[in-house]
Amino acid sequence: MRCALCGVLVVLASLACALPAAVPPPAAAGQPSPIVWMTNTPTQPAGQTTVEATPTPTENPPTVTPVPTVTLPPEAVNTAPYLYYAQAGDTLSALAVRFSVLPEEIVSPDNPIPENGLIDPGQLLVIPRRLYNTTAATRLLPDSEVVYSPSAMDFDIEKYVQEAGGYLSTYSEYLAATGQTSGAQVVARVAIENSINPRLLLALLEYQSGWVFGQPGSQAKIDYPMGNVDGTKKGLYKQLMWAIDQLSIGYYGWREGLLTDILFSDGVSARLAPDLNAGTVAIQYFFAQLYSSAEWVQATNPDTGFPALHTTMFGDPWARAASVEPLYPPTLTQPQLILPFAVDQIWSYTGGPHGAWAREGARAALDFAPGSVEQGCAPSDNWVVAPAPGLVVRTAKGILALDLDGDGREQTGWVIVYLHIATENKIPVGTWVVTGQFLGNPSCEGGFSTGTHVHMARKYNGEWIPADGPIPFVLSGWRARAGAKPYEGALERDGVIIQANQYGTFETRISRKENDP
Length: 517
Hints:
Elements lengths: L21 E2 L13 E5 L2 E8 L30 E4 L6 H8 L24 E4 L29 H8 L7 E4 L3 E4 H12 L3 H12 L9 H5 L12 H20 L5 E3 L5 E3 L6 H11 L4 H7 L6 H9 L2 H6 L23 E10 L7 E8 L13 E2 L4 E7 L1 E6 L10 E8 L10 E2 L4 E3 L13 E7 L2 E2 L9 E2 L2 E5 L6 E5 L2 E4 L9 E3 L6
Parallel strand pairs: 1-4
Antiparallel strand pairs: 2-3, 4-5, 6-7, 8-9, 10-11, 10-24, 11-18, 12-17, 13-14, 13-16, 14-15, 15-18, 18-19, 20-21, 21-22, 22-23
């Protein structure tokens, strides 16, 4: 987590902290195309015809053999609309981007389509066909197998790693926050902090380097087990964090309608099939960062590639998903929450929607800094408070997780995660708190921060919820709005707008009143 600070006036603080043929509901079966692109024709209205991809120029393009672009004559193109069954998390705006149409062009014979809310999973949508060359539409992994969902809450990482008996079972490394840390503990830590499914991380480790069941075959696989050979990302922890960044970009970029194309290491680019699910795009995006287009096809082959290994290691992921998905219903609403500080204190809104944990991924977090006459990481006697009743289920250096349903599980229901809570005065795990109860003091602890502040984000059933989306982040009646870039944006209430500014300027001041919503 990265934070920057310059003080201005009396509110001096942080900054920025440390994605016609009917389309069926999700299915695991199906053969991938032997190359990247797919095209529909009238002679095969329900199938696909393989088409070669054209390399996209890059700044330093690799040497590749040019492949001719296939251009279909207008009369050969299947112009029948998509018959698409909505998936959990779908919104009209995101679907319009994925299918390259206007929102008003998407219609449904079933029920009205919510303009800004979540669409009912399974609702039939009729969408004009504007995309003819895309990746295959085979779904590789359900969403619940990418995020740390209810299906993984009882998974024993330590037991699995030890019984597998591979290199990971004897590995350890020193981490500043936890000291000498075993391989299983590293996986467990990054999984819960980033809310990424530990089964997925173990399967990727095994696929990329053989760490789980065997021994790495080279020094490169020991140093860079996820395959990103970068001297600044050496070791298990940094490799996992890099991998999680890629998975999060793919997953949340797709969910929010920010990602439509992937670029492979050989310079080939591909438009993603518009009817994929977020979990599949996460896997596809990850492998695209490492492999050429041909290698990527092999890695994503559901019968012989990574999805097959995942199933061999952990059983049928689609069967597990059937018991927990959809991860959130279209009727889901945020519980009433208050601003995270005491009444009548002056704070500053220093970070609009940005990464929930790392810098990349879901723009689920907001930053607030207490008023101060000192710059930098000055101690603060202001208090961070509970936005709603809940159970403190996890604390670590700078971290506090508040479980609003009180079942003690971060993988279920609403959870608020705070970062940069000072160790001194922090409320202990197991404490039930009420709205407005003190949790601790803001600080610079946890991650990298150059100014005292607090960072807060929401997740539901393990999935980070974007701050400006169909379930908006609302605190004491203030609604978060995203900006063009992470950390930008505003809070809005009753016609009043407060723009986020990492320098804590006079205009960013905000306070909570006793009679606020």
